[in-house]
Amino acid sequence: MGHRGMTPGGFYLENNDFQSSEHSGTHVDAPAHMAEGKWKADQILLERLTGPGVVVDLWEKNVTSDYLVSQQDFQDWEEKHGRIPDGCILMIHTGWAKRYWDGGQLAYMGSTNESGLSFPGLDPAAARWLADNRGMHAVGIDTCSVDSAKTEAKGSHTTLFALNIPFLENVANLDQLPATGSTIFALPIKIGGGSGAPARIIAIINGDTSAAASGPRQGLIGIGVLALVAILAFNVI
Question: Which H/E stretch holds residue 79?
Answer without folding.
Answer: helix 71-81
